[in-house]
Design brief:
This protein is of the alpha/beta class and 273 residues long. It is built from 9 helices and 5 strands, in the order αβαβαβααβααβαα. The chain starts with 29 loop residues before the first helix and ends with a helix.
Length: 273
Amino acid sequence: MPERTIIGYAADVPIELTEFERGEPFDGDADAAIASLQQRLACAQLSQIVHRKRAIILLEGWTGANKKSVLKRLVGALDPTHVQVVSVGRFDEFNDERHWLAPFWGSLPSAGDTTIFYRSWYRKLIEQRVLAGLDKKRWLRACDEINEFESQQKDHGTLVAKLFFHVTVERQAANLQQRQEDPWMRHLRTNEPLISLSQRNMALEILHEFFAQTDTRWAPWNIVDANDPTASCISALTMLAEMLEKAMPAEPPAMGETVVQFRQPKTPEQTRA
């Protein structure tokens, strides 16, 4: 059997991470920009809740690439009763014998809800490829399974928003060193090996390969230049606001039986009558 080639429904223009390394600072009032974006996100989520739409947001990227800062800003903008955040651990923490995507099915959003994956099913796939030497045949099969999984969510009316946070090796090293020097932050560091500094070259090659396989028209990748923390936060929130606004209806649904009517309290005169 001949070796498989790039999947036909992948994006026509391949993603090249080196194109997202400018690190240009945000030119403007960052606090005002973030506040405005959070308001847009809140309005889009309100439409999502009312129209009972679903959304899945993936935050992937290098260790030390400002993902958690964006997560905090994002969650802070949304109604927390309709949001679930799932932090995905290392692949060797999945110790059951189910299909490797099975643990994620239980975290999929209900109608009107959003699930944010802080790292996701891609983490396990990349770790196995980098660390465990996952062979090409199984790698391509896993990519196919991911594409089918995300396609099923899209067909079910779910928005799938995938963000990858990219930093240069110099910026990543500086960020990790800063964390190590902070007496509080250093305790949050683990020995997690995903895309570590020592494996950058191998990981870069694998990342470009997996982008080519999983950058689909129904669930495209959005690359965030995370070399400047403030600019990357604004960029990521802008991407998400635009995707949510495009996916959610702009007008409220028509009045129906599901709408609870507000009853005006009786005035004293009406009560005496």
